[in-house]
Write a structure and sequence with these properties.
Length: 120
């Protein structure tokens, strides 16, 4: 251990040199701990709201498109070729993808809520 000031390198703070005996006065004060106030609720994440709306919207539009395409195929309208062939074919092709992506988004949003459950 250093016995006098001559053993210290004057370029550096003595607290960081070998042999320094710390009396606690050279340390800076720690910042005050700020606690979260419980009177104001935490702000909602707007992206979670968008994901919820996207998931429900895709799921509902996919199921609606499936129902509508089946209705058009069940009740044929020979006056309009577009309504008889094109619209049901397009809706029947896209609707399962809307349902699949809507379910995936729904599972993702529920997963995000599950991960954040204990954090408050």
């Amino acid at each position: 251990m250093a016995s006098n000031e001559s053993d210290y390198d004057r370029r550096f703070n003595p607290v960081y040199q070998q042999g320094h005996e710390d009396d606690g006065s050279a340390r800076p004060e720690s910042p005050p701990v700020v606690e979260r106030s419980r009177e104001f609720p935490a702000a909602r994440n707007p992206w979670l709201v968008v994901l919820w709306l996207l998931a429900v919207g895709l799921l509902a539009s996919g199921l609606g498109a499936l129902w509508y395409s089946q209705t058009l195929l069940a009740v044929p309208n020979p006056d309009s070729v577009q309504e008889f062939y094109v619209i049901p074919a397009v809706l029947a092709a896209l609707a399962p993808w809307f349902v699949l992506v809507g379910l995936a988004a729904l599972v993702g949003v529920v997963f995000l809520h599950a991960v954040r459950w204990g954090r408050g």
